[in-house]
Design a protein that fits this description.
Blueprint (H helix, E strand, L loop, with lengths): L4 E6 L6 H13 L2 E7 L10 H12 L5 E6 L3 H7 L4 E5 L3 H17 L4 E5 L10 H9 L10 H12 L3
Parallel strand pairs: 1-2, 1-4, 2-3, 4-5
Bound molecules: adenosine-5'-diphosphate (ADP).
The site of adenosine-5'-diphosphate has 17 residues, from helix 1 and strand 4.
Length: 163
């Protein structure tokens, strides 16, 4: 059987249980899932690329067919380099849809061999976002139910001196 490789791109600042739920589901469908962290965005991340990479690596360690990587430049070019035919994106609510549709259509225009696959997380994770988690952690709230333990620890460390 030929390899079926999927790329799951994003900023993962930081990785949450919502991301991990998608990764777990995808790891059962594909031979390999590459969680691909990007740095070329205007999002002013809380965690440096290397920190985000390490957190993601620890969080996915139990999935043997999941790899963490970083990339810059065009996503379709990166997908080609990794021999991946599928781009995974998560859809939580209608609010995600417009931007995701635009990206998917543009990526198809850039390389028609690559398909975007949208997945939905477990219902209790649909309201989860990295930005919300950072806000809760910054304000001293409990993020334990929403992120893996390594991320909870890293968030505590980031914000401890600001309180
Ligand atoms: P980006 O900056 O590319 O949006 P994110 O790290 O915020 O990167 O998200 C990466 C992907 O994961 C996106 O497709 C996003 O919709 C999806 N995602 C984020 N949070 C969740 C969640 N709680 N459940 C499912 N998918 C999610």
């Amino acid at each position: 059987m030929s390899e079926l490789i999927a790329i799951y791109p994003g900023s993962f600042d930081p990785i949450t249980n919502g991301h991990l739920d998608l990764i777990r589901r995808a790891s059962r469908m594909f031979t390999k899932v590459v969680v691909a962290l990007t740095d070329n965005n205007d999002k002013n991340p809380l965690f440096k690329l290397e920190e985000r990479r390490q957190l993601a690596e620890k969080a996915v360690a139990k999935h043997k067919n999941v790899e963490v990587d970083v990339f810059s430049g065009l996503l379709v070019a990166y997908a080609g380099k990794k021999k991946a035919r599928v781009l995974l994106r998560g859809l939580r609510a209608v609010s995600d849809f417009e931007y995701e549709l635009q990206m998917a259509l543009m990526n198809r225009n850039l390389d028609r061999r690559i398909e975007t696959l949208f997945m939905t997380p477990k219902d209790s994770y649909t309201y989860l976002s990295s930005s919300l988690i950072k806000e809760i952690a910054r304000l001293g709230g409990n993020v334990k139910p929403f992120v893996p333990p390594v991320v909870e620890k890293a968030l505590k460390k980031k914000f401890i001196r600001h309180r």
